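Weekly sync, protein design subgroup
Attendees: M.S., D.O., the rotation student, P.L. (late)

Item 1: inverse folding check
M.S. brought a backbone from last month's batch and wanted to see whether the design step gives back something sensible before we order anything. D.O. pointed out we never logged the input encoding, so this time it goes straight into the notes. Structure tokens as presented (281 positions):
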């Protein structure tokens, strides 16, 4: 089991500099990763201070040496895949191969997409997500690549350099269980970041069900991650009981525990205190 921090890219205390400092503290406290939400507008009505996660991740990469860095999740349908390919490879090199890219449809659709005149239909966004992943993987190879999809077209081109990581940057797919589409998609990639339609937090039984479904659709024998989001509060009162619940998730196949710190997001001191507690193990 590896342990990461899961934090929104918005809040009164959030800035690229503050996030870089928090990532440094997380590394010192023994955490293995730091994952930022990737929102451009969390709500049509709510006014929030927000930072670009990719700028923040670059700052975090410069102040850390060991922990993995990534998004949770990037709404690929609102990105140009070739632009994201450049950004991810640049960050992978900057971090010496520590980037994990988590992707999804993006929610809420009315704010993330509709507010800017972009497509809100879930099926269209799902199709754009799949095509966008094909384009990313193709451009990451650093070899001649072309693509003719319904939504994206790429004339023969070569993107250099390729990522530091081989065979490519790991891709995790986010989704709400028991919706099956995101999990069939995840089976084609390197990991999954699941939440539940009701209740949000996954139980050990849920994890077993997710992994069984992934196994039915997975053809690769490469390692596969399942990153479970939760908090010490949801894992049980007190650090020891929290650690026991996390250990139960690890026993049934979870490979990452992502500590959700968004309840502390309006207090830098509370974020620091939670991070300094170290992983629940």
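Designed sequence read out in the meeting:
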């Amino acid at each position: 089991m590896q342990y990461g921090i899961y934090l929104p890219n918005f809040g009164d205390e959030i800035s690229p500099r503050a996030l870089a400092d928090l990532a440094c503290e997380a590394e010192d406290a023994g955490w293995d990763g730091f994952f930022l939400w990737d929102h451009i507008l969390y709500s049509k009505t709510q006014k929030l201070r927000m930072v670009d996660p990719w700028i923040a991740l670059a700052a975090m990469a410069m102040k850390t040496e060991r922990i993995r860095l990534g998004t949770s999740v990037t709404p690929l349908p609102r990105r140009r895949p070739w632009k994201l390919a450049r950004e991810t490879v640049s960050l992978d090199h900057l971090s010496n191969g520590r980037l994990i890219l988590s992707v999804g449809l993006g929610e809420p659709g009315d704010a993330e997409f509709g507010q800017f005149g972009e497509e809100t239909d879930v099926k269209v966004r799902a199709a754009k997500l799949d095509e966008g992943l094909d384009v990313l993987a193709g451009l990451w190879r650093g070899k001649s690549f072309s693509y003719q999809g319904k939504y994206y077209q790429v004339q023969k081109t070569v993107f250099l350099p390729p990522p530091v990581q081989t065979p490519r940057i790991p891709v995790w797919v986010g989704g709400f269980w028991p919706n099956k589409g995101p999990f069939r998609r995840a089976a084609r990639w390197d990991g999954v970041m699941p939440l539940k339609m009701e209740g949000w937090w996954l139980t050990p039984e849920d994890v077993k069900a997710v992994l069984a479904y992934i196994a039915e659709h997975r053809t690769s024998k490469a390692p596969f991650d399942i990153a479970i989001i939760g908090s010490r509060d949801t894992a049980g009162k007190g650090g020891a009981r929290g650690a026991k619940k996390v250990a139960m998730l690890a026993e049934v196949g979870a490979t990452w525990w992502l500590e959700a710190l968004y309840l502390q997001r309006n207090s830098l001191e509370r974020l620091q205190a939670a991070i300094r507690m170290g992983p629940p193990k």
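Discussion: The longest strand covers residues 171-177. The radius of gyration is 18 Å.
Action: P.L. to compare against the previous round before Friday.
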